[in-house]
């Protein structure tokens, strides 16, 4: 069975390929990427695959039995891009699509949710067997800021006391690989999140312990946080979106205690302390 991985050269995609190669032969995996040359180091077949080039997608999917559709990163364009891919997959004879969605997408207040909900509906209406992986927050969404926080002497956000049940990106990648190589997955919707939730105050405390100095968490209003991000060079609209996601976290939209991810993995999810440690070592 040939499995196609969209976005295979992205941060999640590379990890999925790595985990999938542990479970099936490399010749069974196809990287579907905009620039195949960038996938050379993956050691698998690579095909040109541009989410925006709807007319070319079908040919790239010929011979693919199942597809991991990793959601695109162009916010505002994703619903259309994903529909293009699902339509092409059906035309090419793909038998099963696994889609990376958002934790509790149908009830979430995150601005990201609407495009995921739209994609889920297109997938359900397509007449192809599907599995939906509703991924919670990546811990790396926050650990990416640890170097800056250490330098500035504070970790900032607008999540209040909201509990965040994040997991390391590799945990979600392994879960995808498991689903792609397991039977009886059609129609399943997995709500996936980390085992142990934390507040950003607790995140800052762990960071402080690891660097050996006090790095407090400073909770800002949504607009204040967006303004600081803009001053740091984040594009204004994206800065506002990031701040809004934190506000959603304060309302519980990034919390989940169902344990579905660890159950699927057959192990505990990666601890927050471990991901912070890795971030500090590479920053």
What does this structure look like?
By secondary structure, the protein is of the alpha/beta class. It has two domains: 133 residues, Rossmann fold (3-Layer(aba) Sandwich), CATH 3.40.50; 111 residues, UDP-galactose 4-epimerase, domain 1. It is 44% helix and 14% strand. It is built from twelve helices and nine strands. Strands 3-2-1-4-5-6-8 form a seven-stranded parallel beta sheet, with helices on both faces. The longest helix has 15 residues. The protein starts with a strand and ends with a helix. The model has no long low-confidence stretch (mean pLDDT 96). It comes from Sphingobacterium oryzagri.
Q: State which percent range the strand residues make up.
A: 5-15%
Terminal Cα span: 39 Å
CATH architecture of the largest domain: 3-Layer(aba) Sandwich
Domain module tally: 2
Number of helices: 12
**CATH superfamily (homologous) name of the largest domain:** NAD(P)-binding Rossmann-like Domain
Structural class: alpha/beta
Strand arrangement, largest sheet? 3-2-1-4-5-6-8
Protein name: SDR family oxidoreductase
Organism: Sphingobacterium oryzagri
InterPro entries: NAD(P)-bd_dom (IPR016040), NAD(P)-bd_dom_sf (IPR036291), NmrA-type_oxidoreductase (IPR052718)
Domain NAD(P)-binding: 7-149
Brief characterization of the structure:
44% of the residues lie in helices and 14% in strands. By secondary structure, it is of the alpha/beta class.
